[in-house]
Amino acid sequence: MGAVIATRFSTAGHRVALTARGAAQLADVTGKLTGPHLSIPSDVTEPPDAVFSAVERSFGPVEVLVLNAGAAVAKPLTALTDEEWQSQLDLNLTAPFRYMRRAIPAMVERGWGRIIVIASIAAKRGDRDISAYTASKHGVLGLVRSAAAELAKTGVTVNAVCPGYVDSPMTDSNISLLAAHTGRTEQDIRRALERKQPIHRLITADEVADAVDLCVLSAAITGQSIVVDGGAVQS
């Protein structure tokens, strides 16, 4: 999803800065960008000052922050280790908090900013076998709502986009993990995920990017969790 969102922004004329752990992954995405861009290999679970400093040197203060990094550990609650639990909180909740905290002062100073967290429908309900992921996404949705309330008069909006099951590498990885832990085939699990969504297919990354665009364009949408799941969760 991050690659699609970045490409969409670049095509629209935005200067785009990307961060990810893998240099090869970054190179694959930046090769598709048409406008000014910057790639910064980094682990988002580390403090973000170096990333922001690099962006500010090249492009100035961050105006739009999209927090897309995330991962899920798919296994029963009783099989989760303390390390797996903590890793989910670090990546899906603490990292967005740190990046938001670093970006907000400059946005408030300018009187304009957009923060969009890619959450999940797991932030809106509970599903089996993803308890750590679900807890972290419920937490990040609370963070979004609280930040939006604090910033409502500043010109800075904060929203969450909550995709359903997306046709993505993360979904593929989770399907493989579930197959290993349950004995079901990957094909059966994929079909079950498709059937959970009333449109009976996985969501595309472009459909998630449409919701991100909306959050960037609107000054009146803030503190919201925009569900993109084909109608499974109605809110």
Automatic annotation (TrEMBL):
Matches recorded under Pfam families: adh_short_C2 (PF13561)
Gene Ontology process terms (BP): monocarboxylic acid metabolic process
Entry-linked InterPro entries: NAD(P)-bd_dom_sf, Sc_DH/Rdtase_CS, SDR, SDR_fam
UniProt keyword annotations, A-Z: Oxidoreductase
GO molecular-function terms, A-Z: oxidoreductase activity
Domain of life: Bacteria
Gene3D superfamilies xrefs: NAD(P)-binding Rossmann-like Domain
Family: Belongs to the short-chain dehydrogenases/reductases (SDR) family.
Protein name: NAD(P)-dependent dehydrogenase (Short-subunit alcohol dehydrogenase family)
Native organism: Actinocrispum wychmicini
